[in-house]
Design brief:
Bound molecules: phosphoenolpyruvate, magnesium ion
CATH architecture of the largest domain: Alpha-Beta Barrel
Number of domains: 3
Largest sheet: 8 strands, mixed
Strand content: 5-15%
CATH topology of the largest domain: TIM Barrel
Radius of gyration: 24 Å
Structural class: alpha/beta
CATH superfamily of the largest domain: Phosphoenolpyruvate-binding domains
Length: 561
């Protein structure tokens, strides 16, 4: 028996035989075409349109954020600039295969050179090129194998198209060699509730057919397990399944302290799933996700309908809607199209909205109209607020439109450090730990090379959370968490100990977080938070808290192990 370590996503556990991802197709040879340019062009058109259609269909089947990712991929496949590049090579005498391979590689290099959000999309191009090549060659696209029995999938990383369509009856668990907790694979795995350990550096030592236990809660893959280990893993998996179907009670600590468990949503149609999973409301509705592909600002009527549909799903419940957060990894053509060297530090979030105040005013109008027509408790908040002055600006504007609860996101260290003054004006704060970690650690959240810094367990990030929690407590104002950190069950306990009064997360994380926080009293959560704050780094904080938590006497009968 040996153990491989990585980053676990969620609390799941599973065991089964390993099947490794099918390898990529070899690159084509640069031989001249014998078919002629017209025929080669036609072959490419047919292959590209089939691939784009398949990606769109996969997206429709998957729903959620997978759909957005796959639709974006389908659009890249059919991008006219890319088509022109392919045609130019064919006109110069290339085969369809070589033209696709070479043009996609050139496009990839261009995107990488641009960097930022577009640079991140570069890897997606490889997946699309492979699919088009497979179609041209009449072979299966490389990707998830289908061995005809349930298996544990081992891959370097998964393309979004693969993660989205994983057959959950067959794929028992996922192990990736690359990727961190905020990678695409991790986000989609969390959303689909797949047992996953990512960033397992030694993952490729695993061979087809060997049995492993994948324990996401410990971030460990056990090879060659004993019968006892396997039995225990099976029992834990069964217990989790029954916890998943258990009644979805509101979030509460072991001493009865309520901690509302809310959902992060990107579109209104995701609301019913969140309700079914017991979300007590919405802690973050990312409005920009509705308009990522729009070239023009949405109309008031268009927006009002979307917000109305969302609010109608939560009568009497709190729904926190964030005004457009455009910029950096989420540019909106109608808000920020200027090139910036450093877009994460540029005109993004509230800064971009202020520069186009008419768009902000229209959004607030639409929100106020949807609020008047529905029975939810609407709260609005602004992203990327860095100063007290911005807080005053946004909250005053929101109130001008009759929106009664107006707050700010704390994602920039400056606003965390002045949280007492920010909260003197805002009705609430919601901490976006993804950006707060990025800005505290000076590590681009989109960049794999600095992913090791992107860890919200870092005591520097936790100190900032404490600043906001303390300010909220002394002013009697709610402090929510809506970054990915809230979906990590043990970190969620620490965040509560630092003063968070609600936690908002991908709906699939709700049951794990609900169950974990119910095991600790507020006093225990505070003492675990002190332990995390006393560590030197993120790994030290997590390990020390895990050890201290395991040593605490049980506060409540556990429903799963
Ligand atoms: C965050 O930064 O933590 C957050 C919730 O906002 P987003 O991930 O949309 O930037
Ligand atoms: Mg953010």
């Amino acid at each position: 028996m040996s153990e491989l370590r990585g980053v676990g996503i969620g609390l799941g556990v599973a065991h089964g035989p390993v099947v490794r991802m099918t390898e990529a197709l070899p690159a084509p040879e640069s031989t001249p075409s014998t078919l002629g340019a017209d025929a080669e062009r036609e072959r490419v058109r047919e292959a590209v349109s089939v691939v784009a259609r398949e990606l769109t269909e996969r997206g429709e089947a998957a729903g959620g954020s997978a759909q957005e990712v796959l639709e974006a991929q389908a659009m890249i496949a059919e991008d006219p600039t890319l088509q022109d590049e392919v045609d130019a090579r064919i006109d110069a005498g290339s085969t369809a295969e070589w033209a696709v391979h070479d043009a996609f590689a050139g496009f990839r290099a261009t995107l990488e050179a641009v960097g930022g959000y577009l640079g991140e999309r570069a890897a997606d191009l490889d997946d699309i090129a492979q699919r088009v090549l497979a179609r041209l060659r009449g072979v299966d696209a490389p990707g998830v194998p289908d061995p005809g029995h349930p298996f544990v999938l081992v891959a370097r990383d998964l393309a979004p198209a693969d993660t989205a369509l994983l057959n959950l009856d067959q794929v028992l668990a996922l192990i990736t060699v690359d990727g961190g907790p905020t990678s695409h694979t991790a986000i989609l795995a969390r959303e689909k509730g797949i047992v996953a350990v990512v960033g397992v550096a030694d993952g490729f030592t695993l061979t087809n057919g060997e049995t492993v236990i994948v324990d996401a809660s410990a971030g460990v893959v056990t090879t060659d397990p004993t019968d006892d280990d396997t039995q225990r893993a099976a029992e834990r998996a069964a217990a989790r399944r029954s916890a998943d179907t258990a009644p979805k009670s509101p979030g509460v600590l072991a001493d009865g302290t309520p901690i509302a468990l809310l959902a992060n949503l990107g579109k209104p149609s995701d609301a019913p799933d969140a309700v079914e999973r017991g979300a007590e409301g919405v802690g973050l509705f990312r409005t920009e996700f509705l308009f990522l592909s729009s070239s023009q600002a949405p109309t008031v009527a268009q927006q009002r309908e979307a917000y109305r549909e969302l609010l109608e799903a939560f009568p009497g419940k709190k729904v926190v809607v964030r005004v457009l957060d455009a910029g950096a990894d989420k540019p909106l053509a109608f808000l920020n199209d200027a090139h910036e060297e450093n877009p994460a530090l540029g005109l993004r979030g509230l800064r971009a909205l202020r520069a186009s105040e008419d768009i902000l005013r229209e959004q607030l109008t639409a929100l106020a109209e949807a609020d008047a027509a529905t029975a939810a408790d609407l709260w609005v908040m602004a992203p990327m607020v860095a100063t007290v002055e911005e807080t005053v600006y946004f909250t005053a504007l929101a109130r001008e439109y009759g929106l009664k609860t107006a707050g700010v996101m704390v994602e920039v260290p400056a606003s965390a450090l002045l949280a007492d003054r920010v909260l003197a004006h805002a009705d609430f704060a919601s901490i976006g730990t993804n950006d707060l970690t990025q800005y505290t650690m000076a590590a681009d959240r989109m960049l794999g090379s600095v992913a090791g810094f992107q860890n919200p367990w870092h005591p520097a990030v936790l100190r900032l959370v404490r600043e906001v929690g303390s300010a909220g407590a002394s002013l009697g104002k709610p402090v929510g968490i809506c970054g990915e950190a809230a979906a990590d069950p043990l970190l969620a306990v620490v965040l509560v100990g630092l003063g968070a009064t609600s936690l908002s997360m991908a709906p699939s994380a709700l049951s794990d977080v609900r169950q974990t926080i119910s095991r600790y009293t507020l006093e225990q959560a505070r003492s675990l938070a002190e332990i995390a704050l006393a560590a030197d780094d993120a790994a030290g904080a997590r390990d020390a808290v895990a050890e201290a938590a395991a040593a605490l006497p049980p506060q409540k009968k556990e429903t799963t192990s």
